[in-house]
Automatic annotation (TrEMBL):
Belongs to the CPA3 antiporters (TC 2.A.63) subunit E family. It comes from the Bacteria. It comes from Marinobacterium halophilum. It is a multi-pass membrane protein. Signal peptide: none annotated. It is found in: Cell membrane. This is Multisubunit potassium/proton antiporter PhaE subunit. GO terms for molecular function: monoatomic cation transmembrane transporter activity.
Amino acid sequence: MSRSRWLPMPLHSLLLLVVWLLLNNTVSPGHLVLGTFLAFTIPLLCAPLQTPQPRVHRPLLALRYMLRVLGDIVVANIEVAVLVLGPMRKLQPGFVAIPLDIESELPITLLASTVSLTPGTVSAELSDDRRWLYVHALHLTDEQALIDTVKSRYEAPLKEIFAC
């Protein structure tokens, strides 16, 4: 058997051993043996539960994406504050279905989280076929503009970052 099969998560195993010894405040032979046993056994039992995730192919673009999202959060906070402090009858809340071009779980989760992190919008649901993201907007005046913004500002960079 290959090394990766016997030790699927070497860093986790080392961390488990160190934490075990620190929690017990001893390096006695018995705790070393038990800690080593746990450090090998727990990752072996957990390895089948891991879901493979797509790799980040463009890390600098990922950094730029994070900075863009942070900037959008600041701007959206100001916009929402102005809307909320104004007359409530002018608010036009609504739902919009955004068609998705990405299929992997991680990029979809990041997209939904980004939409929810940006004040004024909340990801409400993902369709069963993972082709539509339903978003609630606090003030929805142009449905297509919201769809275009989400697709161009958030989904397109995620497609590039994860090459999907």
